[in-house]
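ok so heres the complex, two chains, lmk if somethin looks off
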Amino acid sequence: GPKVLQIPSHQIIDMGQMVTLNCDPVSNHLYFYWYKQILGQQMEFLVNFYNGKVMEKSKLFKDQFSVERPDGSYFTLKIQPTALEDSAVYFCASSPGLGGRREQYFGPGTRLTVL
Amino acid sequence: GDSVTQTEGLVTLTKGLPVMLNCTYQTTYSPFLFWYVQHLNEAPKLLLKSSTDNKRTEHQGFYATLHKSSSSFHLQKSSVQLSDSALYFCALSLYGSSGNKLIFGIGTLLSVKP
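and the predicted structre for the whole thing:
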């Protein structure tokens, strides 16, 4: 089936550094998402992105977070600067559309550890 | 606010037995429900989806029926296999909300023993 790839699978950085998480979504999909999962808790929506713009973001999407997908390349989540509470697994997802085609396809996640 | 509740954190069963994983939701929007399955170190994969009231949907031996009257979308299988051991997430998508975010339950870990 359709696959979403995420690079890297693990990232360890020092607090205050910048980190960029990369996502390669399904090729004909139009909507892109980031979710955050802290160990032992449920996956929570961060942001979604369509046609070059953020459509909706949650309160977890702090000012230090940004997303972009320049020229159809990777869909990225950048955190600058990082904080200890940013340690989590970040899942990228994409979907072909809305309405009856709203199912989201997930990547395997990037485990981010902030020291 | 909108939410999804999965009451069982861990379900342990012997191979061949039936299983039901509970999922209830709260929303004022028209709901679209999903079940995702995540095997160890893999991506969550879509298992089932439904927005139609009282219609059973099936895939890979699993089935679920959306009941809007009770706000439920329980996942069932008549005979579990060892390969069904995984984490199962129920998720809610809302018609009428912008951008189609998913609201997840906390997940149920299904462990199938020989």
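quick notes: Chain B touches chain A at residues 32, 34, 36, 41-46, 49, 51, 89, 93, 97-107 (CB under 8 Å). thats all i got rn
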